[in-house]
Specification:
This protein is of the alpha/beta class and 202 residues long. Helix content is 33%, strand content 34%. Strands 1, 2, 3, 4, 5, 6 and 7 form a 7-stranded mixed β-sheet that branches. The chain starts with a helix and ends in a 5-residue tail after the last helix.
Length: 202
């Protein structure tokens, strides 16, 4: 009897370990999600491009600042969407300087992810600064104060700058693994950032 009980215990432990590893490392899920993204976007432009303005090189300089593994996933998702638009992405540690092509800085401010295999929730605030011409001199000012307006100088020439804040809230029900849930969140945020940053409006 003891031998039978021991076998049952060992099998149970093995099954539990396999299930735990599945949840932790496999990207899979069958679920329904209720995801909302609130957006606040400011746009600034000055003048119009002309033949004397240096043309963007087709490169987008990308920087994503965050403190956990989620930021790495989000950076990959954003880079993939930008590349689908025909750009080459170069990751940099963004500084408040003028780059020689389009630049996009993204900051993950407050990630709050609760994961459960059957019921997961998340809220997070993401901020981005996009410059069509690569002028990131206003980067620190905008990140510090969303409502502070940008005033371009007539010496700056053509400028197109966008500053956005996105607040994501998500509830997902069903059997999902942790990698799947993080990717689900990253896909929604990346779509919002790239859509608004590269919008033809303004």
């Amino acid at each position: 009897m003891n031998l039978k009980n021991n076998r049952i215990l060992i099998v149970s432990i093995v099954v539990f370990v396999i299930f735990a590893l599945f949840l932790a490392f496999v990207d899979a899920g069958a679920s329904t999600s209720n995801t909302g993204v609130d957006q606040k976007i400011s746009g600034y432009s000055f003048s119009r491009p002309n033949s004397s303005d240096p043309a963007p090189t087709g490169v987008v300089y990308l920087d994503l600042k965050g403190e956990d593994g989620f930021s790495v996933i989000l950076e990959d998702e954003i880079a993939d969407l930008i590349e689908e638009k025909g750009f080459k992405v170069e990751t940099v540690s963004m500084q408040p300087v003028i780059y020689d092509s389009t630049a996009l800085a993204v900051v993950v401010n407050k990630p709050d992810i609760f994961y459960n295999p059957f019921y997961s929730t998340a809220t997070m605030d993401v901020e981005f600064v996009y410059s069509r011409t690569g002028n990131m001199e206003y980067l620190d000012m905008l990140i510090d104060d969303f409502d502070k307006p940008v005033v371009f100088s007539s010496m700056d020439g053509y400028q197109l700058l966008r500053h956005g804040q996105l607040n994501l809230s998500d509830t997902t029900k069903g059997l999902v693994t942790y990698p799947y849930y993080k990717r689900h969140l990253a896909e929604n945020i990346a779509a919002g950032v790239v859509d608004k940053a590269f919008s033809d409006d303004l």
